[in-house]
Write a structure and sequence with these properties.
This protein is mostly helical. The protein has 10 helices and no strands. It binds protoporphyrin IX containing FE (HEM). The site of protoporphyrin IX containing FE has 19 residues, from helix 2, helix 4, helix 7, helix 8 and helix 9.
């Protein structure tokens, strides 16, 4: 158990946990986006998808618990690393330079992260912790995403997610050791492509519901 405490106490241990939890969240985003695309099939199609998902019963609760744990670990360690970096500024710049240049994504990670956290809480209050007996999930989603203010919030939030992921994706691969000069440009390219898919994939849904 001592090795585990030492591992968590070390900078590389914390960065590894950030990388693993962050990449797991990228995996969740892919599954979530794929599920949300059923919204384009209309109310019955989307509700059938949600019902199918809920039919997994306790398995879904376990998945939600895993997701919550990943989020808590990611946010908690992110906050610790943020304050450690603040206290060691010269060191931070040295690390950033060697990590392959500074981008909007890399410079704003803690801020985009906190905005995402606020968005996820708002999002869950909006769609998850509401009365699922009174309205179908399709109604819940379309009641929100046909209002101008909600559409704005969702589009801005999704752009923030894309900016966060554009840096987080390749940075996570670098942390887990895939920082070979031959593969890094490819991994960076995949990260950018991934963030664009996330931005367009999630961002077009509110536009579609609002204009439809
Ligand atoms: C237009 C975009 C989006 C739509 C329409 C949407 C829709 C939904 C819906 C309907 C639920 C509740 C499912 C249920 O309770 O049965 C949900 C849950 C969730 N969403 Fe989204 N979502 C969107 C974007 C996002 C984004 C960008 C993120 C991450 C940053 C995200 C993270 C989550 C999380 C963590 C849950 C909880 C998962 C669970 O407990 O099942 N969503 N979303």
């Amino acid at each position: 158990m001592n090795w585990f405490a030492n591992f968590l106490g070390s900078s590389i241990g914390k960065k590894l946990l950030m990388a693993i939890t962050g990449l797991s969240f990228c995996g969740f985003l892919v599954v979530h986006l794929a599920g949300n695309l059923t919204l384009y099939g209309g109310s019955d199609f989307f509700n059938a998808y949600v019902e199918h998902l809920h039919s997994y019963g306790p398995l879904i609760n376990v998945a939600e618990l895993v997701l919550l744990t990943l989020a808590l670990v990611h946010v908690f360690i992110g906050i610790i690393l943020f304050f450690q970096n603040l206290n060691a500024r010269p060191q931070r710049y040295a690390v950033n330079r060697s990590a392959g240049g500074r981008t909007i994504g890399s410079q704003t990670m803690p801020y985009t992260g906190l905005i995402m956290l606020a968005f996820i809480i708002f999002h869950l209050m909006d769609f998850h912790f509401v009365d699922h007996e009174a309205r179908t999930v399709y109604q819940i989603v379309s009641d929100s995403l046909t209002q101008r203010g909600y559409v704005f919030i969702y589009i801005v939030a999704v752009l923030i997610v894309a900016i966060h992921v554009s840096h987080g994706f390749w940075s996570a691969f670098q942390t887990i050791g895939a920082n070979h000069p031959k593969y890094m440009p490819f991994i960076k390219g995949v990260g950018i492509a991934f963030s664009i898919v996330i931005a367009i994939g999630f961002g077009f849904i509110p536009i579609y519901l609002f204009t439809g």
